[in-house]
């Protein structure tokens, strides 16, 4: 969900009530609940957050807008991110000079090119950041951690 003040990322899991709120001014990230999302928010589906990047115009949020299932590892779905959106935290570009606008446009173009290259894979249930060998040698406590905590 997008408002002029915040981005709200809502989990689509059954029973999930948590919403990630990202302040577009302070860039502060907090956890809130669905009822805090204003009804006026523009809503669109995404499949994940790739990250943030700071360019000339300010901070941008990179989100995954399309995915394709490419396989399974131990019954865990592995997805390939196939399309992205680059969302500006700033509501306007009026604070930039013509040269800064042009530089920002070039950087956005370069970023779009990098994102168009194959190779962005993810799983919501399996740890792709560690090798199978390393995962086999970790403690039970590590195995019980969520992917985010790892």
From TrEMBL:
Domain annotation SAC: ranges: 47-140
Spans through the membrane: 46-64
UniProt keyword list: Membrane, Transmembrane, Transmembrane helix
Organism encoding this protein: Steatornis caripensis
Enzyme class: hydrolase
Cellular component, GO, one term: endoplasmic reticulum
Family matches, as Pfam families: Syja_N
Record bears the keyword Transmembrane: yes
Annotated signal sequence range: none
Superkingdom of origin organism: Eukaryota
Molecular functions per Gene Ontology: phosphatidylinositol-3-phosphate phosphatase activity; phosphatidylinositol-4-phosphate phosphatase activity
Record-linked InterPro entries: SAC_dom
GO BP term, pick one: phosphatidylinositol dephosphorylation
UniProt catalytic activity: a 1,2-diacyl-sn-glycero-3-phospho-(1D-myo-inositol 4-phosphate) + H2O = a 1,2-diacyl-sn-glycero-3-phospho-(1D-myo-inositol) + phosphate; a 1,2-diacyl-sn-glycero-3-phospho-(1D-myo-inositol-3-phosphate) + H2O = a 1,2-diacyl-sn-glycero-3-phospho-(1D-myo-inositol) + phosphate
Listed name of the protein: Phosphatidylinositol-3-phosphatase SAC1
Enzyme Commission number(s) of this protein: 3.1.3.64
